[in-house]
Design a protein that fits this description.
Blueprint (H helix, E strand, L loop, with lengths): L1 H12 L12 H23 L2 H30 L18 E3 L2 E3 L12
Antiparallel strand pairs: 1-2
Length: 118
């Protein structure tokens, strides 16, 4: 049963396994998935007979799918263009930046990794 649930989830939500994988553009894939999510949220609300159910379900679908798409987009960027992340401010340890004492820059030993736990 666990494998069935896992496979069912992946058949819908895994961009490499569901039929939307044939859409090359990630943004278009995201839009189609959002439209499907709204359709299912509407269906659920009609089944429940409540506009409140529609609103809650729609917002939940919006956040869940957006989070999944951002994650997939980040993974794809890391896979295809790993250098994209090299210029992030946190990519360089703070020790590699400049240290100033009394307004003068102190030259650090390039072999010293810094920190107190080595």
């Amino acid at each position: 049963m666990r494998q069935f649930v896992y496979d069912s989830w992946n058949s819908v939500m895994d961009a490499e396994k569901n039929p939307l994988r044939h859409i090359p553009d990630l943004q278009t894939r995201h839009m189609v998935l959002q439209i499907l999510a709204w359709m299912w949220a509407t269906t659920f609300a009609l089944w429940m007979g409540s506009i409140w159910a529609f609103g809650i379900s729609t917002i939940a679908h919006l956040f869940i799918i957006a989070a999944i798409v951002v994650t997939v987009g980040t993974f794809e960027t890391a896979k295809r263009r790993p250098t994209f992340f090299s210029n992030f401010p946190t990519s360089t340890p703070s020790r590699a930046r400049s240290i100033y004492i009394d307004g003068k820059r102190v030259q650090l030993d390039p072999q010293d990794k810094g920190g107190e736990h080595e």
